[in-house]
């Protein structure tokens, strides 16, 4: 549809200047009736020129009251004809709309003409009063039209990313660190990329076809000095539309008390939603709302800005208040990723907010937003440091069953796997915080700079804290061999998590090599503590037959004891378990085979409980975490 443009002038400084000029001309005419012809002509030409601006009808007296009255009656009739119509002017077509705006122009011209000249008769006064009533009716009709058009033609933003929900599971923290397992991190690999690729976008919040009509309404109401009515109606409708959109995004308004009382499960979801919604509202919706205000009120720049602020401030402040309320909560380790996401979004949106609210009228929103971003930065850093403290303070009163991978190890390493996604943010937040790091800084083509970034140093420091905790937990085992199995499992798990993820770019090859050597050393310690005394029985120095038979019997009893215990122990990683089986089998079976090879005939078959094949097969049962040992009779020779 073609653009509707009001023919009414925009009130302002020019209007007052022209009107003042008009009064000067009238005063000159009245001051001296003996003006010469040239001066009279000059004044008439000037008055005629002023009239072309549509400010006042300076020919009220010259053209005759009857002609003015006739023109007014026609305009009044057209305005009043729309008072009871239910259809919109917009729907009537360009010609009908143009005639309605022309009628407003005629009535406003009459009123301004009377305002510029003294009203002399009751008839003139009556026309003036009718004109003001007609103008009021016309303005009320435009105000209703404004609301109806904006309501009926509003459009909500529905970009594709609004439907994309992350498959990442929520992290739950307790003092046992039992919630974050490998399954969570596998699903976390489908990161919330949708939220990170949003960027500034403009959408049409109102059907573009009706924007020229709304602009024509704005021009008419401003020209007739009904700008306050327009602003109130426009702000009310657009603010309500934004509120409806927040409902669409399922972001409810929560008080500070509500946030402080929320259980973690609910708060976690609310923080995740806040991160997503704030980005959409700021970069898409408010950017589009500001564009709409400028399209409609671009001729009134300061008013356009004021309307935009009034439309958006309640929603912005409610989102900021939620963020500030979250900051007031205690910084539990499980909140780290949520705080990181919230801080990243706040930092990313700082420039957008500055551009949305650049003037003094929006300074309070800019200041509040920058303050929240600073508070989120501080809370994120504090939560990160508390995570390390929580690891250090995690103590156990009893040994972990079966020497398995401790919940603490799983939790910490899987949590660390989530952090490379936030590397830039963590490097910024941690750059001024010193930390002990056992890995010396090196240079060379093979050394990645990320290995010595602030984040890398802190991650390795957290791993060191975890290692110290594991060493303390290992001391709870009464069985020396099981202590080493526990350390082997946990250190191997740490290495595998680093090697198999982006953590390797932060921990570095030096760390990996050092910790592989660590658990391999523990394998050696396990073998020594478990088998050294047993294999010492297989040494023979020209022993008597009785002694050899006793050694063979004691070896079988000792092996039974190891089998009974260590089949209940666990080495979950199959490759690690195979490596220990092979290493153990080489030492044990080789020693046993040599012992039997030298002494089998002297000992006698009936005194040999196990063959070498029996021992080799039974060693494969170790570390399978069986509820009870398999029957040994199937492997025993009768």
UniProtKB/TrEMBL annotation:
Gene3D superfamilies: Exocyst complex component Exo70
A Pfam family it matches: Exo70_C
GO cellular component terms attached to this protein's record: exocyst
Highest taxon above the source species: Eukaryota
Keyword Zinc annotated: no
InterPro entries with a match to the protein in the record: Cullin_repeat-like_dom_sf (IPR016159), Exo70 (IPR004140), Exo70_C (IPR046364)
Keyword Transport attributed: yes
Coiled-coil ranges from the UniProt annotation: none
Listed GO MF terms: phosphatidylinositol-4,5-bisphosphate binding
Record keywords: Exocytosis, Protein transport, Transport
Gene Ontology biological process terms, A to Z: exocytosis; protein transport
Domain Exocyst complex subunit Exo70 C-terminal: 273-621
Function (record text): Component of the exocyst complex.
Family: Belongs to the EXO70 family.
Name this protein carries in UniProt: Exocyst subunit Exo70 family protein
């Amino acid at each position: 549809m073609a653009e509707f443009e009001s023919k009414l002038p925009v009130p302002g400084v020019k209007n007052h200047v022209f009107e003042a000029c008009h009064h000067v001309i009238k005063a000159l005419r009245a001051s001296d009736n003996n003006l010469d012809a040239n001066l009279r002509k000059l004044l008439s030409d000037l008055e005629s020129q002023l009239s072309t601006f549509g400010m006042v009808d300076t020919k009220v007296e010259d053209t005759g009251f009857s002609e003015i009255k006739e023109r007014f009656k026609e305009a009044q009739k057209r305005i009043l004809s729309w008072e009871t119509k239910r259809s919109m002017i917009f729907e009537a077509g360009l010609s009908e709309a143009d005639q309605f705006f022309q009628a407003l122009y005629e009535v406003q011209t009459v009123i301004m003409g009377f305002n510029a000249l003294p009203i002399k008769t009751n008839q003139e006064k009556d026309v003036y009063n009718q004109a003001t009533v007609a103008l009021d009716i016309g303005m009320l009709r435009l105000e209703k039209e404004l609301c109806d058009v904006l309501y009926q033609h509003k459009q909500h933003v529905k970009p594709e990313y609004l439907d994309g929900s992350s498959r990442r599971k929520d992290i739950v923290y307790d003092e046992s660190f039992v919630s974050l397992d490998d399954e969570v991190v596998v699903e976390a690999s489908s990161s919330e990329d949708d939220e990170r690729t949003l960027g500034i976008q403009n959408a049409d919040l109102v059907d573009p076809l009706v924007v020229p009509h709304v602009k024509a309404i704005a021009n008419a109401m401003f020209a007739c000095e009904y700008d306050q009515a327009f602003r109130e109606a426009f702000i009310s409708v657009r603010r309500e539309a934004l509120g409806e959109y927040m409902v669409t995004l399922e972001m409810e308004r929560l008080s500070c008390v509500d946030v402080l009382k929320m259980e973690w499960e609910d708060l976690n979801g609310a923080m995740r939603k806040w991160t997503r919604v704030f980005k959409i509202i700021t970069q898409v919706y408010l950017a589009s709302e500001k564009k709409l205000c400028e399209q409609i009120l671009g001729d009134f720049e300061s008013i356009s800005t004021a309307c935009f602020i009034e439309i958006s401030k309640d929603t912005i402040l409610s989102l900021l208040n939620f963020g500030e309320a979250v900051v007031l909560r205690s910084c539990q380790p499980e909140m780290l990723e949520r705080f990181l996401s919230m801080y990243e979004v706040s930092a990313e949106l700082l420039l957008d907010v500055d551009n949305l609210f650049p003037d003094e009228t929006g300074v309070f929103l800019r200041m509040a937003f920058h303050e929240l971003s600073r508070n989120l930065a501080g809370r994120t850093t504090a939560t990160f440091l508390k995570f390390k403290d929580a690891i250090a303070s995690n103590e156990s009163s009893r040994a972990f069953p079966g020497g398995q991978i401790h919940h603490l190890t799983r939790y910490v390493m899987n949590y660390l796997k989530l952090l490379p996604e936030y590397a830039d943010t963590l490097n910024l937040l941690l750059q001024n915080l010193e930390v002990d790091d056992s890995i010396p800084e090196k240079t060379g083509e093979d050394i990645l700079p990320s290995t010595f970034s602030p984040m890398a140093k802190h991650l390795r420091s957290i791993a060191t804290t975890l290692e110290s905790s594991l060493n303390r937990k290992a001391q709870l085992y009464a069985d020396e061999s099981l202590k080493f199995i526990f350390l082997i499992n946990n250190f191997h798990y740490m290495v595998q998590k680093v090697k198999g993820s982006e953590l390797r770019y932060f921990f570095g090859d030096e760390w990996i090599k050092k910790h592989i050597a660590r658990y391999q050393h523990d394998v050696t310690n396990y073998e020594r503590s478990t088998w050294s005394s047993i294999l010492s029985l297989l040494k023979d120095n020209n022993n008597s037959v009785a002694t050899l038979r006793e050694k063979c019997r004691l070896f079988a009893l000792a092996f039974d004891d190891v089998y009974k215990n260590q089949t209940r122990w666990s080495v979950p990683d199959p490759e690690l378990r195979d490596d220990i089986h092979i290493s153990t089998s080489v030492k044990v079976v080789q020693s046993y085979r040599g012992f039997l090879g030298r002494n089998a005939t002297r000992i006698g078959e009936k005194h040999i409980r196990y063959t070498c094949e029996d021992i080799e097969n039974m060693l494969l049962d170790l570390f399978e975490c069986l509820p009870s040992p398999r029957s040994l009779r199937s492997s025993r020779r009768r």
